[in-house]
Every structure is written in structure tokens, then in C-alpha cells.
Write a structure and sequence with these properties.
The protein is of the alpha/beta class. 21% of the residues lie in helices and 12% in strands. It is built from three helices and five strands. Strand 1, helix 1 and strand 2 form a beta-alpha-beta unit. The N and C termini lie far apart (43 Å).
Length: 111
């Protein structure tokens, strides 16, 4: 299967749906603060495929603060806010440790 657009897959989607590998151009895994700039640089330079992965953990104190001023809050019943990644627990129903590992990393609530 091919598309007339570039297909980029990453995050939990990649972990849950292995069949996506057959139709993607770019695979971006790991901490977005590390892998997305690499992907964007290649895309800007004309790349049409690539794989990006890093085991390195992002410094959550330096992570970008979302542009909440662009959100129309009246359009949402609830909005999730993530300020920590990783979890030291081993709940059988949860995939957080698969995505972010067992060592928590956090930002400040004031951000």
C-alpha cells in the first residue's frame, strides 16, 4: 500500500500496530524532544524516508511548554496534562513503562 503523502509514525501507535511499518516513510521513536528535531532536519533537506530512535531521555525541565493560548478550551470536555514521564510500578494493564521506561522524569508544575 502506498500513499501520495509522506507517512510518519511514532509513539504509542507504533507499539500497538506493527502493520503500520509496511506503509510508513518515517519512523520516529523515543523522546520527541530528541528525535523530532533530527526528523525535521532531514525532512527540510529533502529526505523521503528515515528511522529515528534514541535511548537518551529528554530533560523535562528544558522541554517545550505547550502553546495553551492556541487551544479553544470550550471545545473540550477534558484535557490531559502530562508533566511526568515514566513509572516505577509494574501494572499489567498499563503501557507507560513500555513508552517512557521505569525511571520517572518530571517538569515543574509552574511551567
Amino acid at each position: 500500500m502506498t500513499f501520495d503523502r509522506l507517512v510518519v509514525i511514532g509513539g504509542p501507535t507504533r507499539l500497538r500496530s506493527r502493520n503500520f511499518t509496511l506503509m510508513l516513510n518515517f519512523l520516529v521513536l523515543g523522546e520527541g524532544e530528541i528525535t523530532i528535531p533530527l526528523f525535521l532536519d532531514d525532512l527540510k533537506n529533502g529526505a523521503t524516508s528515515g528511522r529515528y530512535f534514541s535511548e537518551k531521555k529528554a530533560d523535562m525541565l528544558k522541554a517545550y511548554v505547550p502553546r495553551y493560548d492556541l487551544i479553544r478550551f470550550r471545545d473540550y470536555i477534558m484535557i490531559g496534562l502530562q508533566f511526568i514521564r515514566g513509572c516505577p510500578f509494574n501494572c499489567e494493564f498499563c503501557d507507560v513503562i513500555e513508552l517512557y521506561g521505569r525511571t520517572p522524569g518530571s517538569s515543574r508544575m509552574s511551567r
